Amino acid sequence: MVLFFDIDGTLWNYKNEINEKTIEAIRTARALGHKCFINTGRARAFVTNEKLLGIGFDGIVSACGTMVEYNGEVVYNRLIPSDEAIRSIETVRKYGFKPILEGPNHLYLELDDFRSDMYGEKVIREMGDKLRGIDECWGNWELQKISCETSVPASQRDACFDELSDLYNYIIHSDKVVEMVPKGFDKGVGIEKVCELLGEDIANTFAFGDSINDKEMLLAAGVGVGMGDTYHDLTEYADYITASLDDDGIWKAMKHFELI
What is the DSSP string of 6-53? Predict the structure, then answer.
């Protein structure tokens, strides 16, 4: 089997704490011959935590299926063309959005846009020297997707979405946060690409997620497992709802399906 795991709310909590039974379950699964992949909306530059990577994974699907690594090598990497990126940045700024450009090696944002913003400060703190300014790197970014702070009227936000609707699908997390994912990509596409790479039937896959941005991943996999006690009702998309992250949800689901 090939197993895919979201990070935030699935592998770790909002404090970036990883349950020891989660670590045990993934390591046991790999020892039994299952392949385990991270499958995250985070760009690869934002997946650097040593404890997380130290669990041991066969590969990483990042930035909503736009990049795939296997055995430490990048096997697929789709970057947004420079002209599309410039158009996107100029458009979101015109409508009052504050963008974060997400790429394989760096994240790009303007510090003044995110001072006193809880999520922005978390990004700034975690990224360290992998953070770059948008304007100082103008036209020379490597990026795969864009996230934006969108504290503007809904009509203004929707007008921006319409203007860029030929380029992106949107994952609206709240009235203040949106992910802009290039059309044709999502976490489910990431699973498909890994299965093509491995020559594996997609029916032999499991996906574990907690959020609405895991919908495509849960639907694409042979078995979709939703984490319990989350903000999102995943019963429409998941085949099975397990216990919460803090209540050994991954370990219990893997026991339930006799993966370990």
Answer: -SBTTTB-TT----HHHHHHHHHHHHTT-EEEEE-SS-GGG---HHHH
Global pTM reads: 0.94
Return the structure tokens found at 5: 């795991």
Q: 90-134: per-residue pLDDT in tens?
A: 999 999 999 999 999 999 999 999 887 877 887 888 888 899 999
Intervals of CATH 3.40.50.1000 along the chain = 2-77+185-256
Would you place residue 78 in the very low, low, confident or very high pLDDT band (cuts 50, 70, 90)? very high
User: What is 82-182's CATH number, 3.90.1010.10, 1.25.40.10, 1.20.1250.20, 3.30.1240.10?
Assistant: 3.30.1240.10
Average pLDDT, the chain: 95
For 22-69, the pLDDT digits (tens) are 999 999 999 999 999 999 999 999 999 999 999 999 999 999 999 999
Q: Where in the chain is the domain with CATH 3.30.1240.10?
A: 82-182
CATH of 2-77+185-256, one of 3.60.9.10, 3.40.50.2300, 3.40.50.300, 3.40.50.1000: 3.40.50.1000
Are 109 and 133 in contact by the 8 Å Cβ rule? The answer is yes
DSSP 73-89: EEEEE-PPPHHHHHHHH
Report how far apart, in Å, the C-alpha atoms of 68 and of each of 219, 230, 242 are: 19, 27, 27
CA of 39: how far to CAs of 29, 164, 207, in Å? 16, 26, 9
